[in-house]
């Protein structure tokens, strides 16, 4: 297997707009994604720095405030091909469902990236729900 | 002053690799002597046959269902119970030197504490991590963020590239072969012996012990990464054992027909893996097809493995000599074991996976109590689990066994009345669309494994072996009508005895 697909989701007891405000800004990814320590955004290009000091150049594919959808590709480094999609769904009861989907080649990186995102979302949920 | 504790673990070491257990390939006089002075266990069983769940069991004294590390890649929560914390709270100085693997290694984000620690030193933020006040960490290679890799890169950078590349370009476990036979994960490593991780683990253990006061009580978990593959011991040492002289394992099926007949009597994932059509877990090289394994490759793997076992034995000897030199010789309990076994040619297979047979399930375990304890040497034939190690350490320390621990201390003899009635082993893996789930009970001379529904099993398959009549587990008696009552009794016992699964289930966060 060379390609893998991983999905992680978390329900957050906060309105979708509030959640999107925290995670929809590509320049603030280091504020919620544990293991990313810095980022710079230039148009549709973003470079994040991981906790181990690895620069990860990315292409921002989608940043849609109406759909509350963010998509990006890692364009160099440990992956040959990659697309991650972050969706924030309004569940209609003042809560939201955040879904992070990662497709990558090699498959191992889908799990590494998706696993890290899932852990980050769990911590985001704890933080945001604790702020009520 | 209490008894001090040296817990020695290796990684992926078979029962029959020690001289005291009848092994004839590796010379292991140090562990053999510990066994002659202490208690040798003839059937020590892990609660998981992969690293992270098994190591989590050693630390917590809990089964995988309870601590929640259900497969490699699932991190043990930092706040999980820990026998090291219990001992530290009781006044023990505590250290972990060598391989931890309570959190995933594949971590480019460096978000796991054990991977990040080497950047800042050996003392964790907050004073302890899982109860250890000192951590110097290593794994099987010179790559990665751990202390050994950083030390090697700083002091001997020319040696970093000498090791086998554990992962391939696909970030899968590497299938590339080497040595004389092209066996997978065999590699000629020209590194100087004193730079190799086995000696480094011993050196750093001795250095930590030297830092302690004479009256300190201490608990040190010395955790060797070997003899886990890759089989790349220092080249200077591989001449100890000529692979051409190595016998094939007992019961090794040399003909393809015999191998396939044996495998076909087991649940279907055995044969599917052998044929290369299903790789159910990350720990085995995805690109390697077991059916291609040759007799000579088995010989060479076992020769290299035996060299690694000898180096561990010698390194342990140096540590014990250092302990004696400190004047602690009569006050130290030494426990020697491993986290799980290795197939190493059994059934024509290598590595590990969802296969609950002796190669992976029967482990070396020796406990040499401090001579001051006055415990008589013995051999325990009754099955015991690694889950009992946490309580054993508490008992040695004179500390009440905490409520979080799920098993009593190890028996001192077959007749002391505290051997467990049964030992449980679990396997769960779910990786890229392939799920496999095993639950095993070892009791009354039988090993019974039930398969829950998964990708290739429908919930009706299983394995049943009579350890007395079939010590190599070649004949699966699951469907043998003559054994039906025995099987059903064991299955009932399994259902009643398994702890309930942790809820919510911990997330898989990396492949390993």
Short description, anyone?
The complex is a heterodimer of chains A (132) and B (512). Chain A is an alpha+beta fold and 132 residues long. Chain A contains 2 helices and 7 strands.
What would you say this structure looks like, in words?
The complex is a heterodimer of chains A (132) and B (512). Chain A is of the alpha+beta class and 132 residues long. Chain A is built from two helices and seven strands. The longest helix of chain A has 24 residues. The radius of gyration of chain A is 14 Å and the shape is globular. By secondary structure, chain B is α/β, with parallel strands linked by helices. Chain B has one domain: Alkaline Phosphatase, subunit A. In chain B, 26% of the residues lie in helices and 16% in strands. Chain B is built from 13 helices and 16 strands. In chain B, strand 4, helix 5 and strand 5 form a beta-alpha-beta unit. Chain B starts with a strand and ends in a 15-residue tail after the last helix. The chains are: A alpha+beta (132), B alpha/beta (512).
Give the largest chain-chain interface (CB within 8 Å): A-B, 25 and 24 residues
Q: Briefly, what CATH class of the domain at 4-21 and 61-130 in chain A?
A: Alpha Beta
Biggest sheet of chain A: strands side by side, in what order? 1-7-6-5-4-3-2
Query: Regions of chain A with pLDDT < 50 over 5+ consecutive residues?
Result: none
User: What is the gyration radius of chain A calculated from CA atoms?
Assistant: 14 Å
Major sheet characteristics of chain B: 8 strands, mixed
CATH architecture designation of the domain at 4-21 and 61-130 in chain A? 2-Layer Sandwich
Shape category of chain A = globular
Low-confidence stretches of chain B: none
Q: Beta-strand level of the residues of chain B, as a percent range?
A: 15-25%
Instruction: Kindly identify the CATH topology of chain B.
Output: Alkaline Phosphatase, subunit A
Could you say what the CATH topology of the domain at 4-21 and 61-130 in chain A is called? Alpha-D-Glucose-1,6-Bisphosphate, Chain A, domain 4
H and E order of chain A: EHEEEEEEH
* Strand runs of chain A, count: 7
Mean pLDDT of chain A: 95
- Terminal-residue CA separation of chain A: 44 Å
What oligomerization state is this entry in?
heterodimer
CATH homology superfamily name of chain B:
Alkaline Phosphatase, subunit A
């Amino acid at each position: 297997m060379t390609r893998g697909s991983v999905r992680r989701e978390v329900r957050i007891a906060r309105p979708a707009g509030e959640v999107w405000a925290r995670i929809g800004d590509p320049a603030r990814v280091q504020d919620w994604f544990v293991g990313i320590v810095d980022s710079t955004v230039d148009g549709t290009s973003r470079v994040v720095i991981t906790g181990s000091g690895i620069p990860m150049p990315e292409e921002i594919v989608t940043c849609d405030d109406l759909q509350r959808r963010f998509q990006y590709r890692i364009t160099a480094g440990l992956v040959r091909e990659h697309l991650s999609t972050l969706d924030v769904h309004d569940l209609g009861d003042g809560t939201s469902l955040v879904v992070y989907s990662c497709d990558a080649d090699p498959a191992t990186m889908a799990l590494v990236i998706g696993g890290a995102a899932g852990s980050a979302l769990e911590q985001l949920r704890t933080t945001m729900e604790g702020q009520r | 002053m209490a008894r001090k504790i040296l817990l020695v673990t290796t990684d992926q070491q078979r029962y029959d690799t020690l001289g005291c257990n009848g092994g004839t390939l590796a010379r292991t006089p140090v562990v053999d002597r510990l066994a002659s002075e202490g208690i040798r266990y003839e059937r020590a069983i892990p609660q998981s046959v992969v690293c992270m769940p098994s190591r989590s069991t050693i630390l917590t004294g809990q089964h995988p269902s309870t601590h929640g590390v259900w497969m490699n890649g699932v991190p043990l929560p930092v706040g999980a119970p820990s026998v090291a914390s219990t001992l530290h709270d009781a006044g023990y100085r505590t250290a972990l030197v060598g391989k931890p693997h309570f959190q995933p290694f594949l971590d480019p984000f460096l978000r796991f504490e054990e991977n990040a620690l080497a950047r800042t030193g050996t003392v964790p933020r907050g004073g302890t991590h899982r109860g250890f006040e000192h951590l110097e960490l290593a794994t099987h290679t010179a790559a990665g963020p751990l202390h050994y890799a950083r030390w090697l890169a700083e002091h001997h950078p020319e040696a970093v590239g000498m090791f086998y590349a554990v992962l391939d370009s696909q970030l899968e476990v590497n299938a590339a072969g080497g040595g004389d036979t092209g066996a997978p994960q065999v590699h000629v490593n020209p590194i100087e012996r004193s730079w190799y991780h086995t000696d480094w683990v011993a050196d750093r253990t001795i250095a930590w012990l030297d830092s302690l006061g004479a009256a300190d009580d201490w608990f040190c978990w010395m955790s060797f990464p070997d003899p886990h593959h890759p089989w790349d011991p220092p080249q200077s040492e591989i001449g100890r054992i000529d692979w051409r002289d190595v016998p094939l394992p007992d019961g090794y099926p040399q003909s393809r027909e015999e191998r396939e007949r044996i495998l076909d009597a087991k649940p279907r994932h055995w044969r599917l893996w052998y044929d290369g059509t299903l790789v159910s877990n990350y720990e085995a090289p995805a690109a390697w097809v077991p059916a291609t394994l040759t007799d000579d490759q088995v010989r060479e793997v076992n020769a290299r493995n035996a060299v690694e076992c000898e180096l561990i034995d010698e390194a342990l000897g140096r540590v014990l000599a250092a302990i004696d030199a400190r004047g602690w010789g009569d006050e130290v309990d030494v426990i020697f074991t491993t986290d799980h076994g290795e197939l190493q040619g059994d059934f024509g297979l290598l590595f590990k996976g969802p296969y609950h047979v002796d190669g992976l399930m029967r482990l070396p375990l020796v406990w040499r109590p401090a001579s001051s304890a006055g415990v008589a040497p013995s051999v325990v034939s009754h099955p015991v689990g690694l889950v009992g190690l946490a309580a054993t350490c508490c008992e040695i320390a004179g500390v009440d066994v905490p409520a979080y621990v799920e098993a009593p201390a190890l028996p001192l003899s077959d007749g002391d009345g505290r051997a467990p009635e049964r030992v449980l082993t679990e396997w769960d893996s779910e990786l890229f669309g392939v799920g496999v789930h095993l639950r095993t009970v070892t009791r009354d001379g039988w090993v019974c494994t039930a398969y829950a529904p998964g990708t290739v099993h429908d919930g009706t398959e299983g394995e049943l072996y009579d350890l007395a009549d079939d010590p190599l587990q070649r004949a699966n008696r699951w469907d043998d009508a003559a054994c039906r009552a025995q099987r059903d009794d064991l299955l009932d016992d399994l259902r009643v005895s398994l702890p309930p699964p942790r809820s919510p289930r911990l997330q898989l966060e990396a492949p390993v």
